[in-house]
Design goal:
rod-shaped; 4 strands; 4-stranded antiparallel sheet; 175 residues; 2 domains
Length: 175
Protein backbone atom coordinates (compact mmCIF):
# COMPACT_ATOMS: atom_id res chain seq x y z
CA UNK A 1 0.00 0.00 0.00
CA UNK A 2 1.11 3.50 -0.83
CA UNK A 3 0.99 6.12 1.77
CA UNK A 4 -0.79 9.36 1.08
CA UNK A 5 2.49 11.24 0.63
CA UNK A 6 3.74 8.74 -1.95
CA UNK A 7 0.37 8.87 -3.70
CA UNK A 8 0.54 12.67 -3.93
CA UNK A 9 4.09 12.55 -5.34
CA UNK A 10 3.04 9.92 -7.87
CA UNK A 11 0.03 12.02 -8.97
CA UNK A 12 2.14 15.18 -9.22
CA UNK A 13 4.84 13.31 -11.17
CA UNK A 14 2.25 11.90 -13.56
CA UNK A 15 0.68 15.32 -14.03
CA UNK A 16 4.13 16.81 -14.68
CA UNK A 17 4.89 14.06 -17.23
CA UNK A 18 1.55 14.67 -18.97
CA UNK A 19 2.22 18.40 -18.98
CA UNK A 20 5.75 17.93 -20.39
CA UNK A 21 4.45 15.59 -23.10
CA UNK A 22 1.63 17.98 -23.92
CA UNK A 23 4.05 20.90 -24.28
CA UNK A 24 6.56 18.83 -26.28
CA UNK A 25 4.10 17.26 -28.72
CA UNK A 26 1.30 19.82 -29.00
CA UNK A 27 2.24 23.34 -27.97
CA UNK A 28 5.76 23.67 -29.39
CA UNK A 29 4.89 22.22 -32.85
CA UNK A 30 1.76 24.39 -32.93
CA UNK A 31 3.76 27.54 -32.16
CA UNK A 32 6.35 26.61 -34.82
CA UNK A 33 3.59 26.03 -37.39
CA UNK A 34 2.04 29.42 -36.58
CA UNK A 35 5.44 31.11 -36.99
CA UNK A 36 6.06 29.36 -40.30
CA UNK A 37 2.64 30.28 -41.65
CA UNK A 38 3.08 33.85 -40.45
CA UNK A 39 6.39 34.16 -42.32
CA UNK A 40 4.90 32.60 -45.45
CA UNK A 41 1.95 34.97 -45.26
CA UNK A 42 4.27 37.97 -44.89
CA UNK A 43 6.39 36.86 -47.88
CA UNK A 44 3.31 36.24 -50.00
CA UNK A 45 1.95 39.70 -49.18
CA UNK A 46 5.29 41.28 -50.09
CA UNK A 47 5.47 39.39 -53.40
CA UNK A 48 1.90 40.42 -54.20
CA UNK A 49 2.79 44.05 -53.51
CA UNK A 50 5.83 43.70 -55.80
CA UNK A 51 3.66 42.23 -58.55
CA UNK A 52 1.17 45.06 -58.20
CA UNK A 53 4.07 47.50 -58.48
CA UNK A 54 5.25 45.80 -61.68
CA UNK A 55 1.82 45.95 -63.34
CA UNK A 56 2.54 49.21 -65.27
CA UNK A 57 5.83 47.85 -66.56
CA UNK A 58 4.23 44.55 -67.58
CA UNK A 59 1.48 46.46 -69.39
CA UNK A 60 4.09 48.54 -71.22
CA UNK A 61 6.06 45.42 -72.20
CA UNK A 62 2.86 43.77 -73.42
CA UNK A 63 2.16 46.77 -75.66
CA UNK A 64 5.70 46.49 -77.07
CA UNK A 65 5.41 42.75 -77.70
CA UNK A 66 2.04 42.80 -79.47
CA UNK A 67 3.31 44.28 -82.79
CA UNK A 68 6.16 41.74 -82.88
CA UNK A 69 3.71 38.92 -82.13
CA UNK A 70 1.49 40.14 -84.96
CA UNK A 71 4.46 40.05 -87.36
CA UNK A 72 5.33 36.54 -86.17
CA UNK A 73 1.77 35.37 -86.83
CA UNK A 74 1.66 37.10 -90.23
CA UNK A 75 4.84 35.41 -91.43
CA UNK A 76 4.08 31.99 -89.95
CA UNK A 77 3.85 29.81 -93.07
CA UNK A 78 6.16 31.15 -95.77
CA UNK A 79 7.56 28.89 -98.41
CA UNK A 80 11.11 30.22 -97.95
CA UNK A 81 13.45 29.34 -95.13
CA UNK A 82 14.39 31.94 -92.51
CA UNK A 83 18.00 31.87 -93.74
CA UNK A 84 17.02 32.82 -97.30
CA UNK A 85 14.62 35.49 -96.04
CA UNK A 86 17.30 37.06 -93.85
CA UNK A 87 19.78 36.94 -96.72
CA UNK A 88 17.30 38.76 -98.95
CA UNK A 89 16.75 41.51 -96.35
CA UNK A 90 20.50 41.99 -95.95
CA UNK A 91 21.00 42.16 -99.72
CA UNK A 92 18.18 44.71 -99.97
CA UNK A 93 20.10 46.81 -97.45
CA UNK A 94 22.87 47.11 -100.06
CA UNK A 95 25.69 45.16 -98.46
CA UNK A 96 27.96 43.29 -100.89
CA UNK A 97 27.77 39.51 -100.48
CA UNK A 98 31.53 39.32 -100.02
CA UNK A 99 31.38 41.32 -96.76
CA UNK A 100 28.46 39.41 -95.23
CA UNK A 101 28.46 36.02 -93.56
CA UNK A 102 25.25 34.48 -92.20
CA UNK A 103 25.31 31.17 -90.33
CA UNK A 104 22.71 29.24 -88.40
CA UNK A 105 23.41 29.03 -84.67
CA UNK A 106 20.73 26.64 -83.47
CA UNK A 107 17.15 26.85 -82.32
CA UNK A 108 15.25 27.03 -79.09
CA UNK A 109 11.57 26.85 -78.38
CA UNK A 110 9.51 28.70 -75.82
CA UNK A 111 5.94 28.61 -74.68
CA UNK A 112 4.55 30.93 -77.35
CA UNK A 113 7.38 31.36 -79.87
CA UNK A 114 10.26 29.33 -81.17
CA UNK A 115 13.44 31.01 -82.26
CA UNK A 116 16.08 30.15 -84.82
CA UNK A 117 19.36 31.86 -84.05
CA UNK A 118 21.72 33.17 -86.69
CA UNK A 119 25.17 34.75 -86.51
CA UNK A 120 25.54 37.64 -88.93
CA UNK A 121 29.03 39.00 -89.56
CA UNK A 122 29.39 42.15 -91.61
CA UNK A 123 32.88 43.44 -92.41
CA UNK A 124 34.00 46.94 -93.26
CA UNK A 125 30.87 49.01 -92.52
CA UNK A 126 30.44 52.43 -90.96
CA UNK A 127 28.69 53.12 -87.69
CA UNK A 128 25.75 54.69 -89.51
CA UNK A 129 25.37 51.64 -91.76
CA UNK A 130 25.46 49.40 -88.69
CA UNK A 131 22.71 51.44 -87.01
CA UNK A 132 20.58 51.37 -90.15
CA UNK A 133 21.03 47.60 -90.40
CA UNK A 134 20.03 47.14 -86.75
CA UNK A 135 16.97 49.33 -87.27
CA UNK A 136 16.01 47.50 -90.47
CA UNK A 137 16.32 44.10 -88.79
CA UNK A 138 14.41 45.04 -85.61
CA UNK A 139 11.67 47.10 -87.25
CA UNK A 140 11.48 45.52 -90.70
CA UNK A 141 8.90 43.12 -92.09
CA UNK A 142 10.58 40.03 -90.64
CA UNK A 143 10.07 38.95 -87.03
CA UNK A 144 13.73 39.32 -86.08
CA UNK A 145 15.19 40.17 -82.69
CA UNK A 146 18.79 41.30 -82.31
CA UNK A 147 20.04 39.38 -79.27
CA UNK A 148 23.62 40.68 -79.16
CA UNK A 149 25.68 43.11 -81.18
CA UNK A 150 29.46 43.29 -81.08
CA UNK A 151 31.36 45.97 -82.94
CA UNK A 152 35.12 46.05 -83.45
CA UNK A 153 36.99 48.90 -85.05
CA UNK A 154 39.07 47.92 -88.05
CA UNK A 155 42.79 47.94 -87.45
CA UNK A 156 43.52 49.52 -90.84
CA UNK A 157 40.90 52.32 -90.71
CA UNK A 158 39.16 53.46 -87.52
CA UNK A 159 36.17 54.86 -89.44
CA UNK A 160 35.03 51.36 -90.33
CA UNK A 161 34.18 48.40 -88.17
CA UNK A 162 33.38 44.73 -88.23
CA UNK A 163 30.00 43.81 -86.76
CA UNK A 164 28.89 40.47 -85.34
CA UNK A 165 25.17 40.19 -84.60
CA UNK A 166 23.27 37.33 -82.98
CA UNK A 167 19.82 37.36 -84.53
CA UNK A 168 16.74 35.49 -83.40
CA UNK A 169 14.18 34.70 -86.10
CA UNK A 170 10.85 34.21 -84.33
CA UNK A 171 8.21 31.69 -85.37
CA UNK A 172 5.01 30.57 -83.67
CA UNK A 173 5.67 27.69 -81.32
CA UNK A 174 4.42 24.31 -82.49
CA UNK A 175 2.14 23.16 -79.65
Amino acid sequence: MLRSRERAILILGGAAAVLILLVAFAVIPGVNKVRTLSRASFLAERELADLRGMRPELTRLDREVRPKAARVAATANPSESPLSRLTAVIQEAGFPPSSVSLKSAGARSGEYFSEESFDLKVDNITYLEALRLLSRLENGPLPVVVRTAQFKSRYDDGRYLDATLRLGFLKPSAK
